[in-house]
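Researcher: I'm preparing a figure for a lab meeting and need a structural model of a single chain. I don't have an experimental structure, so a prediction will have to do for now. The sequence is pasted below. Please return the structure as tokens so I can convert it later.
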Amino acid sequence: MAIKIKTEEEIQRLRRAGHVLALTHQMIEKAIKPGISTYELDQLAYDFIKSHKVEPGFLGYNGFPGTICASINDEVVHGIPSKKRILKEGDIVSVDIGTIYEGYYSDAARTHPVGLVAEEAKRLIEVTKQSFYEGIKQVKAGNHLHQISAAIQKYVEDHGYSIVRDLVGHGVGKELHEEPQIPNFKTVGRGPKLAAGMVVAIEPMVNIGKYDVRWLDDNWTVVTLDGSMSSHHENTLLITEEGCELLSEL
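Model: Understood. Here is the structure written out token by token.
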């Protein structure tokens, strides 16, 4: 399937979706503290997004019941918000949120410490975030997609962690998941050539232990197979001739 090049009108809608998404993440970060439930975070995100005349991107998507995915400790992605999931001191929580403005999606994730956390947890969050930035150093028109993948994997593994193989980044636009798929690890071949006007979500998922994962019985939540902590960092970005524009970051 061809990778879609966005028009200027489409890009403006994507910018608006991304700006509200960035503001939502900023608000959620301030709300995270020991004792709050992931359900409460979900309600805060829903109200905030709606107040900005934008729609939640995940709510109802393939039946998903929340506005956010809230994944705690060994949960990699897609944790379902719940009144029973109470954040505790020392936890880390990955919050993944989507927005839609006039039919166009934005998608971004951040991992946060809950109160005081162990140094290893802090390091995991920082390495995951920086691996994203190492990846986007390879983003510009004319480069190949797997240059991004290789850069992310190298940074993560150089720091002693592993990169999840079963989940990847993706194109973004009128659909939440469009072509191309974007591995966070090196694969065979160079991948498609990047072109100005492509919009993609790059999202390294990093485990302290091995990269293997499994799905829980809820058919959504993905956890590390060995029970080790996992972290997730994602942004939607527009590829330009010289680099990229982060659409979901302030």
